[in-house]
């Protein structure tokens, strides 16, 4: 009995993980058969191949491991380029808070990985009243660019 109670307490003390990344409004979500490490590598390569730069990278997985906590692979990769930045800044200083726009690579419970990102048109939507149709057009260009990155990153599974 004591062992069962101890096991229950131990399980309750473990971090609760939210689960696999699922589709949601305003996002593109692509489940793959790739491993997390492979999808991160392929996403980085696809970002640069499609004319964007990797501006930021962050993820809690390695830091958690150093603390003795095991969590699924989790990497956020911020991507943008100066051409888009200059064009957006000419329309809205406030909108640039959204750059870089991020790709999100998550490891699923079965060991596969998912690539997700908020659609750039969704990210910049709050600034359209200020910046107008030109910002909408730039966001549409970014939607196409991000879709091309995703298509390349998830290819050849």
UniProtKB/TrEMBL annotation:
The lineage of its organism: Bacteria, Pseudomonadati, Pseudomonadota, Alphaproteobacteria, Rhodobacterales. Keywords: Signal. Gene3D superfamilies: TT1751-like domain. It holds the Pfam family DUF302. CDD domains: DUF302 (cd14797). Residues 62-119 form the DUF302 domain. The keyword Signal applies. It comes from the Bacteria. This is DUF302 domain-containing protein. Residues 1-18 form the signal peptide. PANTHER family: INNER MEMBRANE OR EXPORTED, SLR5037 PROTEIN. InterPro entries: DUF302, TT1751-like_sf.
């Amino acid at each position: 009995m004591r062992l069962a109670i101890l096991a229950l307490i131990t399980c309750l003390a473990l971090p609760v993980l939210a689960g696999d990344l699922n589709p949601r409004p305003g996002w593109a979500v692509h489940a793959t058969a790739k491993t997390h490490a492979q999808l991160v590598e392929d996403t980085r390569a696809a970002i640069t191949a499609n004319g964007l730069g990797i501006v930021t990278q962050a993820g809690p997985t390695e830091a958690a491991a150093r603390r003795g906590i095991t969590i699924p692979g989790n990497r956020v990769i911020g991507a943008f380029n100066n051409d888009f930045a200059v064009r957006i800044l000419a329309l809205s200083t406030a909108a640039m808070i959204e750059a870089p726009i991020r790709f999100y690579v998550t490891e699923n419970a079965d060991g596969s990985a998912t690539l997700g990102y908020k659609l750039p048109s969704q990210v910049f939507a709050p600034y359209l009243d200020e910046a107008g149709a030109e910002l909408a057009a730039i966001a549409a260009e970014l939607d196409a660019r991000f879709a091309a990155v995703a298509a390349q990153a998830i290819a050849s599974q």
